[in-house]
Amino acid sequence: MGGVVPRPSLFGRLGSSARVTVVSAPAGSGKTVLLRSWIAEAGLAGRAAWVAAGREEHDPQRFWLSVFGALRQTGPGTGPVRAVSPAPDLDGWALAEGLLSDLAPLDERLWLVIDDVHELDPDALRQLQLVIMRAPPELRFVLTARHDVRLGLHRLRLEGGLAEIRAGDLKFTLAEAGELFAAAGVELDEPTLAALHERTEGWAAGLRLAALSLAGHPDPARFAAGFSGTDRTVAEYLLAEVLDRQPAAVRRLLLRTSILERVNGELADLLTGDEGGERVLQDLEAAGAFVVSLDTARSWFRYHQMFAALLRLELRRAEPGAVTGLHATSAGWLAAQGFAVEAVRHAQAAEDWELAARLLAGHWPALHLDGQAATVHELLAGFPAGLAAADAGLAVVAAADELAQGSLEAAERYLTLAERQSASAPAGRGEYGRLLLGVVRLLLDRQRGNLPAVATDVRVLQAMTEVADASRPGLGADLRALALISLGGTEYWAAAPDDAARHLESGVALARRIGRPYLEFTGLAQWAAVVVFQSFTRAVELGTEAAELAERHGWTDDPAFSFVCSILAGMLTWQARLEEAEPWLQRAERALGDEAAQPASSASIRFVRGALELMRNRDSEALAAFQAADLLARRLASPHYLIPWIRALLLLAMVRLGQTGPAGQFLAGLSDTDREHGEIRIAEAALRLAQDDPRAATAAIAPVLAGSAPFVWPNGRAQAYVLEAIARDALGDQDAADRALERALGLAEPDGFLLPFLLHPAKGLLERRARHRTAHAALVAEIRGMLAGPEGNGGTAGGHGGRSPRAGESRLPVSREGLGGIAPPRLPEPLLEPLSESEVRVLRYLPTHLTAPEIARELSVSPNTIKAHVRHMYAKFGTHHRAETVELARALGLLAPSRTGRATL
Fold first, then answer.
1. Average pLDDT over residues 223-229
2. What's the pTM value of the predicted model, to 2 decimals?
């Protein structure tokens, strides 16, 4: 059929074995066109009777006369169905019984299609129900309606004899929309097509009206950008088919609530001054009046975005002076119900800047603790320029936003402004303002790694818990959890692992108890890093918990998630599982964003990158990574526990590159305190061995072996024992060399710490241990196998990407099949096909915490539209999960690295 898009999946459902098929959807959904194209496609022209139950056909006599006439025009119905003429005494019940008698001998398939069955009066519907229940099995019914009608079909549904096609099924997919425009002779590029599909939400009439308007249009992209329910053709259709059919009270409700993203009965009553709003909204949804329920209880609703645009236009025409007041009333109600984000938006729409600022500042802690930094950023953009500098509360929120965006200097400037303004604020507001200042000051000091300042900030906040609870019940506990996690995280960076573990454990437990998953996630991320030095197994358990929380809530673009990935990548690198480490490290690098905003995490990631490249024999790349990590670590306000490790491996990279002279100069340039660190002494031993001075090497590491040199990770001394073994062997003391190697193996085996044996290969020593008795025979065999790798690279895993995990390995339970149920990230591959503009818009929201219905509200589309876009993206990316899709999108440059830096967090 010309201009008609074939829809084979729906054709299949219409031709199913069900006795009755109901097609129920709002006006313009394409019901009639679907059925006519199905009849033509299936070749049913002589076996399908068509009855249009329009308003003029609604009474029983006229309806049944139409049914008799339509059935007589079909092949199977010509013989058995009698001709019936109008008569004053004809009764609908008698006609129904007569039709059943006529059709009793029917022995071949016949379809009765009744279009717009909702137009029938109650008597005609009851008579139709009788015919449906008693009709012969060869008679099939296809009914279309704008809303569900009372036909008592529940028994058929239970028996499997009822097929239903709903509005969601009738929505055109993007591909079908493209076919519709092409059939109408309209050629559109993909972005323009996607924009029209998104605006219409796949509504057939909207797409067809757009196609008519686009015929010969000189600028389709401009047309698509402005196409909405206010377009003349669309507005006329919606007015005639929907709005003008509503009673005055219902029309008033629709207009006055059109300013809302979502509405419930109570809010509708408030805006109209009437009662019964919830019932009206439920009836409108049931009537197919472009009203969509958002929850299973059918208490919250939204309007189709094209209908909403028309309603807002009509509101401005009918009540132009009411719009500002409606926004203000909505803001107050939403704020009282705890819907802070919507309340702020409506206060901004009402240009009540004082209310909007007060609401945002008052609810900012909760938004921050829920990981909604991106939402805060968007709300701040809705204020006039310069207002943040004039309002103390808004200045604090702006400081937090700048911190999340990675600008520590701008954050400091806003904090200074807020501190000056808070000094002159009224007593009540001043206390809360100082509380906000304390929270953001803590976040800033934590990001700078300033442990003394963080400790002071924590004491200040703990003293203000009463103020916090007075401003919002439960806020005191929220801030205690934040303080514990912030303190523990900073102690970790400052090499105080025992204190860090204690505070992080307490903070995570409190976050769980008060229901703050985002705080729990960030705490677990830090806690996993702390326990790396005690047990790889425990660290991966905590890291897995953190990763699963991030996956579940959509926080995989968060710097805390980046940090978790770097910890897992580091453990895999220490175990020489380089192929598995690489994708986790890439994930960490992509999620981090601005290095300047996260110097501690950035230094950690650069450090792991350097170690990985070192294990691959890419010594120049490793050196560059360690140098970058060292520069980042220097920016921290307090000493960082990684600094000795970073500088030790930097020194080792120089040695491996043959730069023994510059390495010696670098070592000499360190302070006496730095040179005393165990990690630096180990690197010095490697330098002395490279200079052919084994005696100086043993002298360098003697304090490490004696336990007098400060050292972060006890089992890390395995590296010192490997160098001791090499030095003693060079000095001719084989027994001492064997004892040192055995100690190294004993320290390394519990966590599978293979790095020392591959960075400092001792093939001859290992061969000797293999010939003699050793408690670590399996580990020796594994190391020897790796050193004899296919590239013959003399001691690293670089030639073959490292080892694979052994069966039943009890070390780090991370494999190519995934970490704790989370699939490891893949290296980026090209998309199977390009994303549409609509899909790109949805993609931008996937890194956030927002659910599909919440993204739908942000984009003013239906949740089903969002789900459809996400399904299409999964197919194009070849992914199965939201976080996996975000990760690959970042790798392909479709999403920028995270700028929100939520783990200011």
1. 79
2. 0.66
